[in-house]
Amino acid sequence: MKTRHKKLAWVAAGVIGLGAVAALVLNAFNSNLVFFYTPTQISKGEAPHGRAFRIGGLVEAGSVKREPDGVTARFKVTDTAQAITVQYKGILPDLFKEGKGVVAEGRLGQDGIFTAEQVLAKHDENYMPPEAASALEQAAKAEKTLKR
């Protein structure tokens, strides 16, 4: 094998190696990517089925129901236009209250109930995730437009 052929083989091996590393990194990034959806987007069918995503909005007043097992809770998350039922098995955060902001991460079932694996409550009166604040603002604008 000539020197030129050896160099070309090393370059080809390097390109293949870099391609493999890039493919692995992109695959890991894609599997950990979690999108945010509003209750309105979910009710329109824009959210994926069978894939984890986040839902955010306000906990609807009077919607929190606890199961007899003591750890399972059902509540509705609303963006003032639509509401989605969320089921969570675990201890809810101390700041979790009706009428307050919440972000839940989980999957949407075939029955339309969002099964959360994690529930996050806002930590003070001035904080709301930007996506949730934007979603509430858009829902309020859409509701005004519909009333006209």
Strand content: 25-35%
Series of H and E elements: HEHEEEEEEH
CATH architecture grouping of the largest domain: Beta Barrel
On the 0-100 scale, what is the average pLDDT? 84
- Coarse morphology: elongated
Task: Give the CATH class of the largest domain.
Answer: Mainly Beta
Number of helices: 3
* Main sheet attributes: strand count, strand direction, barrel closure: 5 strands, mixed, barrel
CATH topology of the largest domain: OB fold (Dihydrolipoamide Acetyltransferase, E2P)
The H-level CATH homologous superfamily of the largest domain, spelled out, is Nucleic acid-binding proteins
Distance between the termini: 80 Å
Rg (CA only):
22 Å
Low-pLDDT segments = none
Oligomer: single chain
Would you write up a description of this structure?
With 148 residues, the protein is α+β, with helices and mostly antiparallel strands. It folds into two domains: 1-33; 35-147, Nucleic acid-binding proteins (OB fold (Dihydrolipoamide Acetyltransferase, E2P), Beta Barrel), CATH 2.40.50.140. 36% of the residues lie in helices and 28% in strands. The chain has three helices and seven strands, in the order αβαββββββα. A five-stranded mixed barrel has the order 2-4-5-7-6. A hairpin with a 4-residue loop joins strand 4 and strand 5. The longest helix is centred in the N-terminal third of the chain and has 30 residues, at 3-32. It is elongated and about 80 Å long. The N and C termini lie far apart (80 Å). The model has no long low-confidence stretch (mean pLDDT 84).
